[in-house]
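Could you please review the protein record set out just below?
***
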Amino acid sequence: MRAAGPAPLRLLAGSFLALILAGSALLKLPAATPPDQPIGWIDALFTATSATCVTGLAVRDTGTGFTSFGQAVILTLIQLGGLGIMTFSLFVLALFGRKVSLAQRSILEQTVSSSIGNDLRPLLKLVFLFTFGSEAVGALLLYVRWAPAMGAAEAVWPAVFHSISAFCNAGFGLWRDSLTPWRGDPWTVLTVSALIIFGGLGFLTVSEIRRAPKLRSRLSVHSRLALVVSVLLTVLGTVAFFLLETNRAFRDLPLGEQILAAFFQSVTTRTAGFNTVDIGALAPGTLFLMMILMFIGGSPGSCAGGIKTTTLGVLAVATATRLKGLRNVNVFARTLTPVTVRNALTLSLFGAAVVIAGLFALLLLEVPGRTLEEERALFIDYLFETVSALGTVGLSTGITADLSPASRLLVSLLMFLGRLGPLTIGAAVAGAGGSHDWQYPEEEVMVG
């Protein structure tokens, strides 16, 4: 008997791949780059993958290495990748009142939400209104702040570009040093941070928050766990960044800028990829903390990557339960199903395995010809690049543009895997064959 799951997942992966290839072709056009800066196929593929997978890693400066047409292509890929291209097709189906198939509904569940009712139109309406509404408000706020410095006409495109890039958690910017010039500006920092947070929170959580006051009902365990973990990670990350870098990278900054920089990096590190400080100048301990946050990422059903906040929350609660010798995993007066705990553990292990394999492959491709001291010095840079790509974050210590063509293809694959998720990719390529879930006699194995 053929499994029903892999087919729609393969369609989802294939759709993203088709968008990447189409974007690569458009970026390869002469109109997409300056006449004196033609782009090769590998770099076009890398850029299209980074944009579609809302990552932000770049092999050339977006502001100077692409024309207005090229930047518009990148922004379109970011928008389509952030929402999930199948959401757009389902929206068109809903507009014309056509019946949505079970396969299409499964795709939307993978792309947007894990809880969908019989009618897709309210969810689609929320997705589009919330997405475009947030981006419009963000663009307006950025324009109001940037227009006096840039000029009324010149500030329009940067405001729109950075607002969409921030909400979609892409991290692409039009300036070589990202948002560093605005590091001490609370208006810019808080606006971009809010866009990143809303874009990484998840549509299901946003929908529940919107409905809760009217229905006087409490949020689901999913939404409460996503909110609690997100707040904890943001607060703890801010404090950690401040303490680790106050006498290093933040040393010459006023106290207010130090706090803003620490807060912004805590927000953007988990998913977005913008930066207001030089990532390459940060201490190894800070880079390691950033890798942890990048690996966790944002919340399910959002534009963010990573293993997700709820996965971390489930693992933390399950671990605490086992340490107490209890059988049931309880949180917020609810008991989590064994399937939920297994999925969280499996997703985390898959993510860790991909990081290990990706790092090993990157080291094999990049270190030949270097001295042992150079290899060891670059180890943390390659590890950082690997986690950033898989977490679809886009932060880099500055080595992206120096990667070999083979390494660029490898990082593109990591971004693709990170966007769709290891479990989604695994199910998509597993085939449609049936599985045998036999029950054999139980036996204990000593662990630990």
Q: What stands out?
A: The longest strand covers residues 330-331. Strands lie at 330-331, 334-335. The chain has a mean pLDDT of 85. The two ends are 39 Å apart (CA to CA).
